[in-house]
Amino acid sequence: MKKGVLLVNLGSPDSPEPKDVKKYLGEFLMDERVIDVPLWARTLIVKGIILNTRPKASAAAYKKIWWENGSPLIVLSEQLQERIQQEVDYPVALAMRYGSMTIKKGIQELVDKGVDAVFLIPLYPQFAMATTETILVLAEEIRQAHFPNITINSLPAFYNNSDYINVLSDSIARHLEGKNYEHLLFSYHGVPERHIRKSDITKSHCKIDGSCCATPSPAHEFCYRHQCFEVTRLVAEKLGFAPGTYSSSFQSRLGFDPWLLPYTDRTIERLGKEGIKNMAIVTPAFVSDCLETLEEIAMEGEEIFHEMGGNEFTTIPCLNADKPWVDLLAKWINNWATSEPETV
Ligand SMILES: C=CC1=C(C)c2cc3[nH]c(cc4nc(cc5[nH]c(cc1n2)c(C)c5CCC(=O)O)C(CCC(=O)O)=C4C)c(C)c3C=C
Ligand SMILES: [Fe+2]
Ligand SMILES: [Fe+2]
Predict the structure, then answer these.
(1) Which ipTM was obtained for this model?
(2) Where does Fe(2+) bind (predicted)?
């Protein structure tokens, strides 16, 4: 079989104009694994409410971070693809879960090069039904409908992979070198608490309390909250951080349901109020910088901190197309290509 690789990230609008943002948000938020309510309710919430108000505000946010050559998330994912391609002998394609760079086009590109065994890499360190699961489900639907003769294997969540933790820790250490900071905040994209309960394969473990995520359970294979806290714990252990000098929080909530706590904006506010003058922030749920890191954290987050009396606010970039991260992905690709993994 001829092997090939498909990297999949979230996606961005085609432009930061409200009409393109509306189209993108419509596709994204109508995904039943993102807004996971019955179709009639989702249609009412998304088409009746969100799409009438949010695209204008989101477009304004996108305009603040948009680059000459496009959306940072897309440009950085393309750089990652190009650099991985320089390191491996298999064709590497890039697709997005939402927007015009579809998974179908990505698979087609590989099939056109003769590929019939695809290694699918969802570009998310932690599993979530709104990210990894929706990619895997859609890829399988596309395979069955259009490419029944190919196989797809996928890379599982790699949040606790020791090589990944080393690459992430080295990046954090490098960006903090010489910086005077008192607290490092690990800010992860949030999800509604309901998503955590839905993904609990034991149906009884995830209480979303003080201890469930620290108590061993098979539920953790699909518990986004556990996987985020584990990244923080493993990096802190690796870098020898003292207790109290770092913490985790969740950003980017939408709607009125309870989302994972503590919220990033409130945490930044609290740190400022408590007299922290210099803080740093890292966003390990994202492998590529995007709207959520460049605008919500680096711009809005910094503003909140300064309003609370803070001085230096250091944002650590995502791994993007850094050489150690490219090398690690190339290593995983070569391991897959020379072994016999299970299909999705
Ligand atoms: C890192 C993983 C992500 C999870 C988990 C996730 C869940 C999730 N997101 C929304 C709603 C929105 N997210 C938006 C942007 C956005 N989200 C992620 C990643 C995760 N989302 C990224 C990388 C981005 C940036 C995309 C870019 O183009 O740069 C947006 C759009 C922007 C906005 O209007 O705020 C929305 C909306 C939900 C509802 C959700 C879980 C249920
Ligand atoms: Fe999101
Ligand atoms: Fe948990």
Answers:
(1) 0.96
(2) 189, 292
